[in-house]
Structures are given as structure tokens and as C-alpha cells.
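Handover notes (outgoing to incoming on-call)

Open items:
1. Protein-S-isoprenylcysteine O-methyltransferase: sequence verified, structure written out, both below. Nothing else pending on this one.
2. Nothing else urgent.
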Amino acid sequence: MSRQLVRIMRPDDANIAGNVHGGTILKMIEEAGAIISTRHCNSQAGEPCVAALARVERTDFLSPMCIGEVANVSAEITYTSRHSVEVQVNVMSENILTGAKKVTNKATLWYVPLSLKNVNKVVEVPPIQYARKEQEEEGKKRYEEQKLDRLETKQRNGDVIFPVINPEPHTVGYSQSSLIHLVGPSDCTLLGFVHGGVTMKLMDEVAGIVAARHCKTNIVTASVDAINFHEKIKKGSVITISGRMTFTSNKSMEIEVFVDADPFVDESRGRYRAVSAFFTYVSLSKEGKPLPVPQLLIAVRACFLGFAFGCGLLLSAGRSAWRHFGWYMCSLSLFHYSEYLVTAINNPRSLSLDSFLLNHSFEYNLAALSSWVEFTLEKLLFPELKQITWLSTVGLLMVIFGDCLRKAAMLTAGSNFNHIVQNEKSDTHTLVTSGVYGWFRHPSYVGWFYWSIGTQVLLCNPICVVGYALASWRFFRERIEEEEITLIHFFGEEYLEYKRKVPSGLPFIKGVKVEL
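Protein-S-isoprenylcysteine O-methyltransferase C-alpha cells:
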């Protein structure tokens, strides 16, 4: 059984580059699939039904379609299970002036027939006849694979895109975008639920906005990975289509897009994840030639830290004095990467490149450079000084203790933790006194203090051990006083009582003095 749609492409089908919008093509593909699958499911006497889109396999955009060309969309049912229909769709464009034809898209779609009487009831699909036994076996294999992939995708669907304050260019937060759409009657099927093609077109629009924001050039859809329709979207719902950059190569961008639905007409149900997919875009010049894609800065820094960690492991495997420097490189890389990771988990709204703390301050970078210089010079002049394994082991334990304490403090504080001292209290700010905050008032600073000194003990750097201890102590004394003024302003007597009971955790630092 096959079905063909023929339609001329008009100016309102175009994107800003003048080619047919990728979302328009996806919508035509879905229309052809819906028609043929609905017709097949009603081909035998039984309960009337409408085929609902459940999944779209990877769809490749092989070549652009131009305005004025005729789109020939052919659909064919290639497999049926008891409750599913597989439809394969080919899209061909035809220049009616020259007669030239070319294949532009290929896609595989899966539909589920829903009863017209009870939308929650899935009716049985009439079987099709196969030319060969192998066709049925191959179709069954594809069916099992997509069913497993849908289950895995649904289990990991829980991400939410948060707005980022002052995002930097070429970061995830800078290009992430959302579109809000009220589902109207023209968007829906006979059952009153959104057409899959309507949703896919909106998703393609959001993905295109993300790609354009990132590279600031003309962009086109290259492919769409599997689109999974997890839940039906009812007429009258408000849907939020969100997209964010997840990966960049030299010539392409991968963008995650998901659709969340708010069923305002059904107050008994809250917001839910309805659809998810990954789109791939390419950047083009005005002449239509591929352009290099700017790399995600976060990926560059994470890659750098991973490379440094790997080098540290290689040095650690050796038996020379550089073995201890390998421990140091691993500790340093892990510290900075975990700063970003924990911030992403706890407080994604404040996430930025600065969350790596790689560019913490000029003084911080100067201190790191000084420790490398001291280690190198002393290794050349006093090599035996760098081979005190027991001392380096003590330093490594200090590093592990300090980093674990700091990350425990960040996780305990949750969204209350921020790398920048806050001057205004928000509605979500609470005074955290449990966990490691029951031991010290400032456990994150205590952890960083002993971590920084531990790195120099690990390197057996006598000068930097003293220098780091003095510089860190002075920095945290001033930081704690500044922070506690804000905390007293935020929480008043509650914080003063906490301050009287719990020490700061740092030697000879009592915090801001309050005269009653």
C-alpha cells in the first residue's frame, strides 16, 4: 500500500535563505504518513480510529528544495505489529520548468491507531502481506529496536532549560531558545490532539533559532535524529518548545529540542514532557557553501581540563619526580571541572564559563604559575627535595579532603550556593545549617583553603606552602567578613545565633564582629 502527496512550494513555505523551510517538509512527511496509516487501520471492519504519530526515525535532508518546485511525497507501509504501523516516506522535488527531479528527504515513521470513541484505547492494526519472509523479520527487528530506544529516551527525559544571566557568546546559555504556542483547532486532528507535523515544524523553528544565534550565519537543517512522541497534546494546551546546543563539530551543530505541555483545560494534570528530539544544522555562506562552526567555549575548556587530567595520569604512572606533578595535574583538573559540574547540578541559572574558576583572578593565576616555576627550579637544583613520597602523599590526602569538603558544601547548599557573593536576597535564599554546615559556617572556604595548601605540600614546594597559606588566609578572612555582613542583613538574629554556635572552620578567623 502506498500514498503520494503532490504540492507546489510557495513563498510562505520559505525560510530566510529562500529555500523551503525544513519544518514544512517534516510537516508534509507526517501528513502523508498519517493519511496512509489511518487509511490502512480502517481498511477492515472494526472500530473507527485515527493514526497518531509515535516516533520519527532519523531523517536526512539530502538536498534543499526551492520555492516554485513541486514536492512529491510518497509513503508506503513497510511493517505492522499488533498496535503499530511503520511508514517509510520519500520526498522528491521536481522543477516543472526543466523537468529535473531529485530526492530531498527520506524518513521512517511509526504510528499507533487510537479509537475515535475512546482516545486512550489503542486498536489492533490489520496485518499486511509481505513479498518475502525476510521483510517481516527485518521489520520486526526495527520495531523492537525503536521500542527499546523510546523507553530509554523516556527514562532520561527530565531536563529543564533555565534562563542564564548575562550569558557569554558561543555558550549553551547564549543560544538556548524557547517558543510558547497555544494549541488551536487548526493544529489538531479529529480527536482534538496536536498533529505530529505541527509539533515537528515548531521544533525545527526553535532549533533553527538556536543554530542562528550561535553562528550568526545562514543555517539549514541537515538531519533530525529520532523524534519521540511520549504523550499526546490536547487542544487548548500551552506548549513550550525549548532548544539548546549540545555539541559542535567543525561543520555542524547538534541541538536538543523538547516540548513541554501545560494542559490548562485539565487542571488535574500538571506540566509534562510530550516530545523530544535532536536536530543537526550546518552553517552556510551567502553563496550556500559550508562554513566553519564556532566551537562551544564550554566544550573547549572541558576538553582542555580532560587533556590535562590525562597528561597527569600518564605522569603519575611513571617513577620519576614528575610523578608527583602528575598527581597535582589530576587534582587541579578535577577541582576545576567539578566546580562547573556541581554548579550545573545545583544552580544552573548562575552557570557560566566563570564557573570553571579557571580565570578566577590575576592573583590566582599568578600563584599557580609561581608554584610551577618553584617546582621546576627546585627539581633542577635540589632533585632529592621532590622525591619525598610520604610528604607528597600527605599533600594528596589534604587535596582530597579539601575538595570533597568543598563539593559537599556546594551540594548541601544547593541553589543557595553561588561563586559570587549576593547583595540582594531572593525568595529562594535560605540559611543552610545542616550537614557540613553544622561543622563549619563556611565549609566551602575551609575545603578550598586546605586544598590549596595541600597542592603545594604535594609538590614539596616549601616557599609556596608558606605563600599559599598566608595569601589564602588573608583572602578568606576578607571574603568571610564581606559575606557575613550580607548574611546578617539577610537573616538577622537567626544568623547571629548560628554564628555563636558554629565556628568558621578557618584558623584565627572569627568573621565579622558584631557589637550588641
